[in-house]
Amino acid sequence: MDIAKIHKLRNIGIVAHIDAGKTTTTERILFFTGMIHKIGEVHDGNAVMDFMKQEQERGITISSAAITTDWKDHKINIIDTPGHIDFTLEVERSLRVLDGIVMVFCAVGGVEPQSETVWHQADRYKVPRIAFVNKMDRQGADLFHTVDSMNVMLGANAVHFQLPIGSEENFEGIIDLVNMTAVKYDGLEKVETEIPDELMADAQKYRGILIEKLADFDDVLMEKYLNEEEIPMEDIKRAARHAVLNINITPVFCGSAFKNKGIQLLLDAVVDYMPSPTDRGIITGHDVDDPNVTISRKPSENGPFSALAFKIISDPYVGQQTFIRIYSGQLQAGSYIYNASKGKRERIGRIMRVRAGNRQDITEIKAGDICALIGMKYTTTGDTLCDEENNILLENIHYPDTVLDMSIQPASKDERQKLSLALNKISLEDPSFKIHFDDETEETVIT
Fold first, then answer.
1. Cα dihedral sign for 379, 380, 386, 389?
2. Strand, helix or coil for residue 182
3. Alpha-carbon distance 282 to 292, whole Å?
4. Cβ distance 99 to 128 under 8 Å?
5. What phi and psi values does residue 25 have, to the nearest 5 degrees?
6. Maximum average pLDDT range among 22-26, 49-53, 202-206, 311-315
7. Helices (H) and strands (E) in the chain, counts
8. pTM
9. Does residue 175 have a pLDDT over 90?
10. Per-residue pLDDT tens for 37-93?
11. Which of 96, 87, 97 is nearest to 17 (CA)?
C-alpha cells in the first residue's frame, strides 16, 4: 500500500456503553456504504456484526467483529466492540491496534458507566475519537445534556459539529455547523436544504463556539478569528482534523441509527477527521535480545515487516484465525515470518479479509491494514510478528485483572480430556482466562 493509499485508510472502532446502539450504527454504516443490501437488526438476531449464535440469541455483542468497507474513495476497517463490562478485554485489545474510535452515546442516557471505562481505555492508548449521539428520536433525548455530561464526567472538550432539527418523535434532520447547511431525510435518502429560519441564530451561535474552540489550537484560524475575517469551510476542517489527531477536542455528531438519520454525515466525519496510519506516525518497540535498544518502524510498505496479533478465533471451517494489525512492510500468502514474542518461525497459509461472518482470500496485505491469517501454530494474542533478520518486539496488550475464581469438573471421568481441550481453546482465544490445578484440593480452577 503506497503513501497515497495508506493516507486513505481508516482503522476505527465503534465503542459504547451497552444498548447505546453501536451495532445498529455499524449495520447502517455497512448498508449506506453498499456492503450489505438488507439492514440487519440486533433485536431480530440478524445483524451482520453479531454473527455468533450467542450474540444473536441475546441481542448483545460479545466478541469484536471486524469488517472492511469503502466510503468516498477511502477504505475503512471497522471493529464493532462489546458494550458489556464482562467483555471489556475485547475493547482493550481492539483499542491497542486502532487508529481512531467513534464513541456512541445514547441521547437519553448520556455518559454511562461503561462509557467512562472505554474512554479511559482509549486514553491509555492515546486514541483520537469523535462522538456520535444516537437515539435522538427517543423520548427524553437531549443532545446538549449529553455533551455537557461528556465535558463534566470525561473531560472530553466536546464540541458541537452538528445541531438537531427537532427532537424525540419530531427529530427530522441535522444542521451541519461546518458547511452551514441542513440535512433532512426522505426515507433512506438525505436531502440537503437551507437551515430553518427559526434555528439560524442557534446555528450561528454554535458555529462561533466551534471556531473559537478550534482557534485555541490553530494559529491561522486564531488570526482570522481575531480579525473577524470570513473563515472558509476548508480552514475549519483542516483545524478540526489537527485538533482531533492531537486529542485536543471531541467533535460531536448526532442522529438516529435505527431511523437511518445521520449515518452518511458520520461517515463523512470519519473520512474528514479520523487519522490514517500515517497520521498515527512511527511506532516504537525494542530489540528482542536487548530491551534497552529502541527500534522504530515507519508506516510504509517499503520497510521491514512488523505486526501485532490482537485476536484469535477458532473457526470450525478454516481453523484458527489470527487477526493482525500491520504497522510496516508487507506480507504475502505462503511466506514465512518470525514470532518475536515466542522465538518461533511461522508460515502463512492464507491471508483473509473477514467481513464479519464471511471471508475473502487475498494474496498480500500491506502496512496500515488489518487482516486474518490462517495456519499460525504458535502465535497468541499480543505477540509481535516481524522479519527474522529485522526483529522488533512491540508493546503487548494490557489485560484486565480477573475478578472471579471457581473450580470446574467434568460430568464424568471420560470427559476429562474433552474438558481440558475446551478450556485450552478458551484460554487461547481469551488471554484473561486462566487455568490451573490446585494440588491441595485436586481441583481444576478457572480464573
1. negative
2. strand
3. 18
4. yes
5. -60, -45
6. 202-206
7. 12, 26
8. 0.86
9. yes
10. 767 555 445 455 444 444 344 443 334 457 888 999 999 999 866 534 444 566 677
11. 87
Torsion angle defined by CA atoms of residues 226, 229, 231 and 235, in that order, rounded to the nearest 10 degrees: -60
The sign of the dihedral angle between the CA atoms of 244, 248, 252, 258 is positive
Query: For 179-203, what is the mean pLDDT?
Result: 95
Q: Strand, coil or helix: what is 124? A: helix
> Looking at 363-423, which runs of residues are DSSP E strands?
364-366, 370-374, 384-386, 406-408
Residue 432 grid cell: 484473561
Tens digit of each residue's pLDDT (9 = 90 or more) over 379-417: 988 899 999 999 999 987 766 666 677 777 777 777 777
Angstrom distance (rounded) from CA 278 to CA 298: 8
The 8 Å CB, 24+ separation contacts for 212-219 are 213/157, 213/159, 213/243, 213/249, 214/159, 214/239, 214/240, 214/243, 214/249, 215/239, 216/248, 217/242, 217/243, 217/246, 217/248, 217/249, 218/242, 218/243
Which amino acid would we find at residue 6? I
CA-wise closest residue to 133 among 172, 163, 91: 163
Contact (Cβ atoms closer than 8 angstroms) between residue 346 and residue 89: no
Give the integer Cα–Cα distance in Å for 27 and 70.
Answer: 14
Q: Which domains does the chain possess?
A: 3-280 (3.40.50.300), 283-386 (2.40.30.10), 406-446 (no CATH)
Beta pairing partners, 295: 285
Residue closest to 147 by CA, chosen among 167, 130, 171, 169:
130
User: What residue has cell string 480464573?
Assistant: 447
| Phi then psi dihedrals of residue 160, to 5 deg | -65, 120
Question: Which grid cell sits at 442?
Answer: 485436586
Do 351 and 371 form a contact (C-beta atoms < 8 A)?
yes
Handedness of CA 141, 146, 147, 148 (dihedral sign): positive
pLDDT at position 65: 57
